[in-house]
Amino acid sequence: MDAQQPPPSPSYLLPLQQLCDSALPTGAFSHSFGLETYLARGIVHDENSFAAWLRHFIDQQLVYSDGLAIRLTTEALEGAGLADVWELDRRVTAQALPLQLRGAGIKMGLRMLEIGEGIFPAPALDEYRTQIKAGRCAGHTAVAFALTAHGLGIPLAQLMSAYFFSTATTLTQNAVRAIPLGQNAGQRVLRLMHGVVTSAVATAMTLEAEDLGAVAPGLEIAQMRHEYQHARMFMS
């Protein structure tokens, strides 16, 4: 009797891994999203304090910005259409009050769009580029990510989980360099984030469109202060 063949992996698995690889050249490695301010003030200084910061960043900012934007973009593509996506791009960009954070979203978004056009070309990406060139959109990383991933058949919850965990991985790699943390400590932090990411995705799935940008003020203030630090390793 022939050995039973294992079921094939979902067709979206490898594309999803590629899009969420921490080595994807979007420039995320050069941004700390306010973490460096907490380092300079001594609030984040070791494994435990970084894990606490990362948990709050995911729960209190990432969910209400990029996470909700990914969900709303995907829903618009499956319903109302691209006009709602362009409006969402303007909203998610405008709600990023810290100047450096807004710039990071655009810089990484334009790189994500360029990567998406090169490896997963789609008419929506071409139209997004047209809207950006015309000045009607900024090019936000979460919108570019969702447009790139659309059509690959990735379940929304898995798409958001992968994006959240990819962000956590990048920030942990940055913390390993900046605190510094040991590589094993970084892996322990990422293991703690498994449950945090799962909970964050569940929260993002329940939010209303009006919740976009409902970010904890303390995180935004730290991100604003980063602009005025005398010495910086990161761009934001």
The CATH H-level superfamily of the domain at 30-104 and 157-225 is Urease accessory protein UreF
Give the mean pLDDT.
94
Assigned CATH class of the domain at 30-104 and 157-225: Mainly Alpha
SSE pattern: HHHHHHHHHH
| Estimated share of beta-strand residues | under 5%
**How many DSSP H or I helices?**
10
Classification by helices and strands: mainly alpha
Assigned CATH architecture of the domain at 30-104 and 157-225: Orthogonal Bundle
What name does CATH use for the topology of the domain at 30-104 and 157-225?
A: Urease accessory protein UreF
Distance between the termini: 60 Å
How helical, in percent, are the residues? Answer: 55-70%
Largest pleated sheet: none
Low-confidence segments, ≥5 residues, pLDDT <50?
A: none
Record field, number of beta strands:
0
Radius of gyration: 18 Å
Characterize the overall form: globular
What's the topology here?
Elements: H1 13-19, H2 35-40, H3 47-77, H4 82-94, H5 99-119, H6 123-133, H7 141-149, H8 156-178, H9 183-204, H10 217-226
Helix pairs in contact: 3-4, 3-7, 3-8, 3-9, 5-7, 8-9
